[in-house]
C-alpha cells in the first residue's frame, strides 16, 4: 500500500473478533499486584461471596490485602432493613469491621405524591444514624427510565427532589450518581462507532433516541442538579463519562466546586492519553476518587499499572471495551495518595474509625 493508493487485502479478511495482532514491541513491564498505597474503593460491588456472611467477610480480608484495598465502600443504593443487616453483619467480624462501609440509597418510587420527600428524608436520617457513610450508587435508571407517579420521566433536576438533596448536604452524606452511559451508546452503531463491538455483543446497552433522552440532555439535567445544591457534595460515577473529553470534565470541576469524579470502569480512556491524563490528575488531584465498580481482584492491577508506572503499550483487561493499548500515566506519590484514599476520607466524615490504618 502506497500513500493515496488503496489496495484490497490479499486473502481472506479477518473479522474484528478474529484479528489479534501480537505486538513485537519490547519494553519494560512493571505490573504491580498491590497498590503502592492503601486504597479506598469508593465504587464497590462485592457480592454474597465476599460480604454475605461473617465467614465470607473473613475470607474477603486477605483478598483485599493482596491488592492493598484497605476499605471497601459498598455502593448498593440500599436502605432500611437491608442496610442495617449489612452493617450489623460487618460489625460481627473482628477483622473486617473497619474495612467495609455502606452507602445508603434513595427510592424514587412515588415522586410526585404528597409526602414523598419527607418520607425519603426521614429514611436518610435513619440510615445515617445506623452507619451509612454516603448515598448511592444512584443508578443510571435515574434519568433514563425512572418515572414519576404520573408516569412521566423523572428528570434528574426535577424540583420535587430538591429537599432530599438538600438534606444530603445537611447530613454530610456525599451523593454518588451514575448518569447515563458512554456517549457512543447513544449514537448510531455504525463502523465509525468505537464501541461497535461492545454494542454488538450487548445490544441492551444501546439507547435509541426514539426511546431515551439524548446523552447531552442527561448531562444538562445532571449539571443543573449539581448547580442547584452547592452545599451538597456530589460524586459523578465513571468521571461523568467524560474521561474521553477531559477538557469538558475540567470545565465541570471548575464550575462546580461541590463535584468530584470517580474513575471506575473508564481506565481505557485514562490509559490511552497518558500525558493529558497525567496533567489532568495533577491539576484536579483533590477532585478524583478511586473506584473499581465490578469486584474482580485480578483486574485491579491494571489500575495500579496505569496510575503508578511509565509502562508503554499494554492491554486493557476487557478487549470489547477497548481494542487499543494503554500507557502508564506515572502519577506523583502525593497525587496517588489523594486519589487512593485521602479524598474519600475527606468527603466522608462518617467513616470515623475506618480511617485507622491509613498513612497520615
TrEMBL record:
* InterPro entries tied to this protein: ACMSD (IPR032465), Amidohydro-rel (IPR006680), Metal_Hydrolase (IPR032466)
Report keywords, A-Z. Lyase
* One Gene Ontology biological process: secondary metabolic process
| Pfam hit, one | Amidohydro_2
Where would I find the Amidohydrolase-related domain in this sequence? 70-347
**Superkingdom of this protein's organism:** Bacteria
Q: List, in alphabetical order, the Gene Ontology terms for molecular function in this entry.
A: carboxy-lyase activity; hydrolase activity
* A GO CC term attached to the entry: cytoplasm
State the protein's name. Answer: Amidohydrolase-related domain-containing protein
Q: Which organism is it from?
A: Gemmatimonas phototrophica
Q: What is the lineage of its organism?
A: Bacteria, Pseudomonadati, Gemmatimonadota, Gemmatimonadia, Gemmatimonadales
